[in-house]
Structures
1.
Amino acid sequence: MQFPKVTLERPRWTPFNIVAAIVVVVGLGITVLRFTKGLAATTNLSDYNPWGIWIGFDLLVGVALAAGGYVTSAACYLFGLKRFHTAVRPAILTGFLGYALVVLALHYDVGRPWRLPYPFIVQQGTTSLLFEVAACVALYLTVLFIEWTPAALEWLGLKRARNLVVRLTLVLTIFGVVLSTLHQSSLGALFLIAPSKLHPLWYSPYLALFFFVSSIVAGLSMVIFEGALAHRYFHHKMDEAHRREADGVALGFAKAASWVLGGYFVLKVVGVAQADAWHHLASGYGAWFLVEVIGFVLLPCFFFAIGAREKNLRIVRFTAAWAVLGIVINRFNVGLIAFNYHLPSSERYFPHWMEIGISLFIVTIGVLAYKFIVSHMPILYAHPDYEPH
Amino acid sequence: MGGPVHSLHEFMLRTESITYILIAAALCAFVFFWRFLSERDDDRDHLGADRPGPGEGGHGAH
């Protein structure tokens, strides 16, 4: 097998690098402010709105979009769909970076971040959903790290350690699916405590189910979306097997996403029926709910189906980006827009520019880390010295 | 939808009835959706590409 090597000198100051450098410098400045002046100086959070975009975007969206790891490894190792094997490493890497950045974002959001390990070593609080989310995220981040290490160990040439970790693949996959099922749903269940604060169209006893099912869509869509980006920007890093199988991965995942989105749409309608919230559809929030459910669930479902049926990769890739945006909108709606809907506009939350700056900073760090790892480690190609696992 | 609700019983009767109708409609719709999704697949796609096609031996691609 040909080992891909790039000898071309690439320009250092590309537009991407310049923008990334600016975001990182500004982000570091805001980081200093956040940890010296506190939350009040850098956020618009208040007692009414204790969770802003660092939770609504960085955590809720971050965890959902990192679901590609468990979805892809389950498809490949648990359901035996080996034709998706080349998608596993990129998906695991995205999942690992996503969860690592979620934990980083939490350090900005919680008032006393040095107390983050307290639920594990000081006071468990096992009746709290947050304890379950914290435990699952911590454990799953560890699982994703171990699942990612074969690539790093191959890069470092540590053959024995790599072979040892590879033997754990099936156990880690099962553990990952169990942990993801638990905490993806628990993130939705967190909002069950606030039935009077969350708009009736979004509040539902099925919130946990909504979050879990939509995380599968997010995972499938992210793998397609990320695969399209990797094809465009890291084509030179891909080996023959990755290039050959990429189209099949996109079409197979589009078919699955279409099916799951159809089920998710039915669940959302059943949620409205169970709450008898039909009359709310005639309000402004109702119009926005319909935009979300029809515009970002039903239509992507239909377009995924068209793309998979016609084997049209352009439609599939475009719809994947569309579905990812839909997940972002859904998490924003539950966490921010439809939350505290009863408050007057003067009391509503809008993020401080520094909050947006930190969110951009964290996303940029993720993109840079992905770029570094994909450029140096065998993520988009199989290392010639090792058997695929 | 419908008139005012005066008791929990009425509420449950209404919401559960609508839910059952919706689920039945969805299950019927899913049959057509599945046909729409997979009618252009060839036999190999129906089996799944991991399984050997006609005339192929072995245990599938790995």
2.
Amino acid sequence: MDETKHGAWMSPSAGLASLLGKFSDAARKYRVEWWILVAGAAIILAVALMTLVPSLFTSYDPVAQGVGPQMAAPSAQHIMGTDNLGRDVNARMVYGARTILGVAIAASLLSALIGIPLGLISGFAGNWLDKVLSLVMDSVYSFPGLILAIAFAAMLGPGVINITVAVSVVYIPTYFRLVRGQTLQIKEELYVEAARAIGARKSVILAKYIFPNVIATVVVVFSLNVADAIMTEAALSYIGLGLPAGIPDWGMDLSMGKKFLPSGVWWMITYPGLMIMTLALGFTMLGEGLSEILNPRLQEY
Amino acid sequence: MRRILRYVGGRLLLTVPMVFVLLTMVFVVLRVMPGDPVSAMLGGHAPQAVIDKKKAELGLDKPILAQYVDYLGQLARGDLGDSMILKEKVSKPISDKLPATIELTLCGLVVCLGLGVPLGVRAARKRRTGHDFGIRLYANVVYCIPVFWMGLMLQMIFGVFLDAFPIAGRVGSRVVSGEFDRTGFYIIDTLFSGNFEALGDVLYHLVLPAFTLGITLSGVFVRLTRANMLDVLKSDYVLASRARGVPERAVVYGHALKNALIPIITMLGLQFSALLAGAILTETTFSWPGMGRLLLERIYLRDYPTIQGIIVVYALFVSFVSLIVDVVYAIIDPRVRL
């Protein structure tokens, strides 16, 4: 089942078929990993459903104040209680999913869109450009990402687009380093040399011979990256750098709940945190499961 | 020894480009984005003449490139410059707050390793049993808990409901702050002055923040220790020492763990920046007067030189730690040639 990994160019349908084949093989071969993957996917689907059809999960408006008493403990009416403005916590959780999931996925996509091409070019070219890019990316990579994200978020000001950009800055080097490393390896392969020998243009070699072989690892890293981005987004809005006040957001709810913690209002901080954790766990499990199945040689680091 | 010193010198030189890259990014972003120290200071309604005068005073009217060259020159002389908002050197608040952050980070690290390594060893020894499964579950769940939420939950359970630990600050109000002028590291200061009551209070305040930081990061170390121990336990010398009748504890902790520690130390260097990032969030949650809170305060004031200074200090701190890790690595593993 390994010949596809370093195999030459594949047509998309053949690629898909081999991927599906891998998955059904995997279900038999890696029992535990398979269930981890399924559980992760289930969590993500449930949250995705929340973002698409929130009315399935709650009948309250997440921003309407005074739909219940202020800071009421969970009850049959408000299953997760109400916050200091009398808003329904459950409704805020359901509608907040949209923000965090959207920002985390958009930020990871943005990082991938910048990091992957740069990594491909850098690894393929291997000249001064490679040296400069590697230096910049390594510097950013070794620095605590959150601090950079804080600096960018604070400078850009609150807003959904701004926080997405701030989060994505952190993860560009992740993709860059991964793709660059793989490109360095793959460009020495015989089939790349063969392509070069028959006179394929550099852009063709990059797009059709190197990129498809890099992408399997990128998928795994993307999933783990979204998990991380979820926590970065939550951290930024917890600090108060994230979003304007009108948008329901888990991180912001946590920082609100923090103020009422000394009076024992546990429901305002318990549920947002649980949601962040569960969603991040979903993407981590999906990524781990995928990594076992797509790259069976990369066991546990 | 000379070999190591030579290596240290080379590595120190390598930190220069890293600091340079980060500094350049922050420098440009600060100046290109909306908001500046003058409007943060004077508010939006000051007359244009006053704003211009103030800007000229701070050197903000010059082109960015000129400001940048000036700043680098200053930095090359080891001077972080003056704050643009407050009448103080940039180094002053940093040297005030840095010890608090280092103290928190190191205590968090101790908790992290103290939990992560033994749990990882245990999971590896009891491979494919309930213990193993439970510990791996712990590692994965803990890895996905946001640091600040962990802090809030610990505050809620141990601070509010059980009322067992304080949830804010570095010391209680009963301890005189004059005690802490010497180094700013409260543990060291109280030890030096022999004031054990104050030391107890300092440690008491450290418990929740350190565990917050330590628990959330221990997941990585559980997984890493487990994976390495599994490899090492399969090796011939472990089999040989078991065959010789060496007690199981001595085999696991004496022979196997020592060898499994090497990749763990490498990981420590890599995880240190995660630890610093976690420390910022822990500081916010526990009202801990450290570098993270300083950074946030000064970002709102648009105090450019102080923000730049903080970034420089963080970058130096990270590279310093990774240097120490490399040297330790070379010392404990004689196969590594620096």
